[in-house]
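seq:
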Amino acid sequence: MSALVSETGNVNFSHYGKQFQEKIFQGLLSDEDWASQMFEVMSPEYFELRYLSYLTDRYFSYFQKYRAFPTLTLLISIIKDDLSNDNDILLRDQIVEFLHRMKSDPNPGDIVYVKEKALNFCKKQAFKEALHQAVDLIQTEKFESVIDLMKDAVAVGMPSTVGHNFFDDIEARFIEIDRQVCPTGMPKLDAKDILDGGLGRGEIGVVTAPTGVGKSHYLVAMGAEALRRGKDVVHYTFELRETVVGRRYDANLTQIDSKELISNKQKVLNFYKENEDLGRLIIKEYPTGTASVITIRNHLQKCMLQGFKPSMLVIDYADIMRSTRAYDAMRHELKLVYEELRNLAMEMNIPIWTASQANRDAAKSEIVGLENMSEAYGKAMVADVVISLSRKPEEKSSGTGRLFVAKNRAGRDGILFPMHINCSQSRIALLDEDELTLNEAIEQDSSAAKALLRKKWKEVNKELDGK
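struct:
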């Protein structure tokens, strides 16, 4: 499409219409990589609509100063400060009305097309401007400058930047990072020095444990906590039926044991009527070994076309997914699955919780570590957070066990928490006892083992003396 020129002689987006221009700004807010490309080639004056020009100017001005784009919440705060003493009521009302519409429809289906057209339009304008400047330079016989000018014109709007310029971008290192998280619901685990609020956007969290310890219950607990926070969740299950997983969510949210749900149907229905602020949940089942990341991505696209964009994914569990490429060794396939999931988390800018089977040795271990992750240690390398659960057979009847932070990019790891797990309600709680470091736990376990040996030795000696 050709651009129109305004009365002042400036090229703008007027030919594309109002909806197209609004979607350009939505693209800036939802895709920071694309926004950084547009920053190099687009002027806020390209917008025919004044409120979009105003918003884009504030958006780019913040990026120019801090080398980071503001979130929608922060942008609204900036605009409120700017317009607090402004008498331009029309502009303020237009901005409020637009942002309200944008929040109600955050993912318009044709946004990819809009971003491609808008970027091409802006790059053409940058090249045309360079050609006009080149004519002036040729007339003054500054031929080397013409070459440099055209090189710069070709380079602007490229997908990648040169990186963080240490001295020029110093302000970016001193702003508070708005890390948006999904809490686990366990205050000790969500503490600032550990998960710093929970699992963040674009991150992948893995819970590992031997068979029957509670990995699936942990994943349901994470999904249910997100629902309580008003976040939308998609839960993928590859072993359990959709209705079985659904009942586990019912039990967790209502605190009614799963075996008692059918006889308490009305209580469950009343609970959901009284708690309409819960997030939405979709549970999708695929047979074991049939779903790949491509399968999940296609399903998510269908969900988003129906207006459902999840704030978190729960995948039960990644070890029994199918990789998109076949390898001779299983460990290579598993590592690829986790890498693809990590890419999906970053692409969609949402957290993903999944699980990993622990090896046989883990069943006998007091603490399940990274070395106990079955088949592929490479899975741990990809994950941002690895949580392990361990329960001895005698602990299952009492619902006690241990939760160990095996890896954590957000804060401290190597920390052991005593826990209680309620499998009837898929609820996990950390006990009031103090957490232990890995060395303290090993030392404590060693002391307990020595005390047990001393006790056994005394019993043997007593029997010998009696004889």
